[in-house]
Amino acid sequence: MNGKNVRRIVFLVFFFALFLLVARIFYPFMTILLWSILIYVLLLPLYRKATRQKSGNPMGQIGRTLIAALFSVGGVLLIALPLGFLTFNIIKEVGELYGEAKRLLNMYPQFWDLSPQGGLGSIIDRLSGGAVNLSNVDLRAELSRMIAGSTSKLLGYSGAILKNALSFIMTLAFIIFTLYFFFMDGEHLISVLISAIPIEHEYTRLFISKLRDTARDLVGGYFVVALYQAFAAFVIFFIFKVKGSLLLAALTGVASFIPMAGAGLVWLPVSLVRMAEGNIGEGIALLLLSALFISTLDNFIRPLVLTEKLKMHPLLIFFAILGGIELFGFNGLILGPLILILFFTAAGLYDQNYRSQTE
Predict the structure, then answer these.
(1) Residue 301 in contact with residue 225, Cβ under 8 Å?
(2) CA distance 99 to 117
(3) Residues 295 and 301: beta-carbon distance below 8 Å
(4) Which residues are CB-contacts of 193 (< 8 A; sequence separation ≥ 6)?
(5) d(CA 197, CA 204)
(6) Using CA atoms, how far apart are residues 263 and 257, in angstroms rounded to an integer?
(7) Phi–psi pair at 261, nearest 5 degrees
(8) How many of the other CB atoms lie within 10 Å of CB of 139?
C-alpha cells in the first residue's frame, strides 16, 4: 500500500468521524428539519410561480422576502391547525367511544357468546359443521380488556400531547424559521450539500431528486388517499350518527396503509355492530356505502394521484412505515419510506456502475 492510499484512507476515516459528529449535532433538530424539508418540497413549485413576475424575471429581494415569510407561516398553519383540531376532538371522542363500546358489550351479552348456543358461536358452529368449539373463550371479557387497554394508551398519548403543547409551539416556530431560509436560500444550501458529500455530484443530485420525488409521491399517492378515505368515512359515519365518527375516521385513514384489508378493518366492524343493534337495514346501507365510497373508489383514485416515479410495492411501503415509526417515532412516517427508496436507488447505482466496469 503506497503513501497516497494511506493518506486517502486516513482522510476518509477522519471525514467519517466528522460526519458522525455533525449528524449528532443536528440529530436533536431532526423533526424540525424533516418536516421543514417536506413542506418546502411540497410548496416549492407554487413558491417559484409566486416569485416570478409576468415578464418572467425573478422578483426583487423585498418581494421574495415577504412571500417566503408568507409561505413559511402558511405552510406550517396548513398542517398545524387541522392537526390541533383533530387532536382536541379525538381526545373528547375517545371517552365517548369507550363508553359506547362498553354499552354494546353489556347490552348484547348473548351475541358475543362463542358457545354453540350463543350468537357468534352458533354462526361458527354452523359454518364449521361443529368442528370448531370456542366455548372456553370469553370473547366479551377479552374485548373489554382490549378496549380498556387501547383507551388507556390513547388517553396517555393525548395527555402527553397536551403536556408538551408549549414544546410543540416552539417546534412550529423553529419550522417556520427554517422554512423561511429554505425558501430564500434553498438552492444555495443544496449546492453546498452536493459539494460536501464525497461522492459523484451526479449521484448526489440523483439522491436529492429521489428524495424530492418520493416526498411528493408519498403525500400525493398515499397520504392524500388516506385523507380521502378518512373524510369519506367521517361523512358516512356522521350521516348514520355513529358515535366517535371523527376518531373512527382517523383510524380509517391509518388502516388505509394496511395491504389487502385496508379501511375495511374499521367500517366493516362498525356496520356489523349497527346490525347487531337490530338496525339491519341501516347496517346493510352503512356497509354498502362504506364499501363503495371508502374502499372501492380507492382503486380508481390511487392510480390517478400516484405517479410512476414511486415504483414500490405497497407491502414494502407498509412495512417501511411501520419500521420507520418503530425506529424514529412519528418521523418514521416519512423517514421509513424515504430510506427504503434511497436504498434501492443506491443499489441500482451500484449495480449499474459495477456492470459498466466488468463488461
Answers:
(1) yes
(2) 27
(3) no
(4) 204, 208
(5) 7
(6) 8
(7) -70, -55
(8) 16
Burial bucket for residue 163 (CB in 10 Å: 0-12, 13-18, 19+): exposed
What's the average model confidence in pLDDT over 37-47?
A: 85
Q: Does 305 have pLDDT greater than 60?
A: no
Tell me the pLDDT tens digit for each residue of 192-236: 777 777 677 777 777 777 777 777 777 666 777 788 888 899 999
Name the 3-class secondary structure at 58.
strand
329 Rama sector, left if φ>0, alpha if ψ -120 to 50, beta otherwise: left
Contacts of 27 (CB under 8 A, 6+ apart): none
Tell me the residue ranges of DSSP E strands in 207-347.
none
Q: State the number of CA atoms in the 13 A half-sphere of 287 facing the CB.
A: 14
Question: Rounded to whole angstroms, how far apart are CA atoms 12 and 6?
Answer: 10
Which residue intervals of the chain are DSSP H helices? Answer: 3-26, 30-50, 61-107, 119-128, 139-163, 165-196, 201-217, 224-239, 245-255, 264-276, 280-290, 298-305, 314-328, 332-358
Residue 260 Rama label (left phi>0; alpha psi -120 to 50; beta):
left
Rounded CA-CA distance 224/100 in Å is 30
Enter the C-alpha cell of residue 165: 403543547
The answer to whether the predicted template modeling score (pTM) of the entire model surpasses 0.70 is no
Question: What dihedral angle (degrees, nearest 10) is formed by the CA atoms of 41, 45, 50, 55?
Answer: 140
For cell 363500546, name the residue: 101
C-alpha cell at 27: 440529530
Summarize pLDDT for 141-199 with one digit per residue, the tens.
777 777 666 666 666 655 555 666 677 788 889 999 999 998 888 888 878 777 777 67
Q: How confident is the model at residue 236, as a pLDDT? A: 92
Percent of the chain with pLDDT over 90: 4
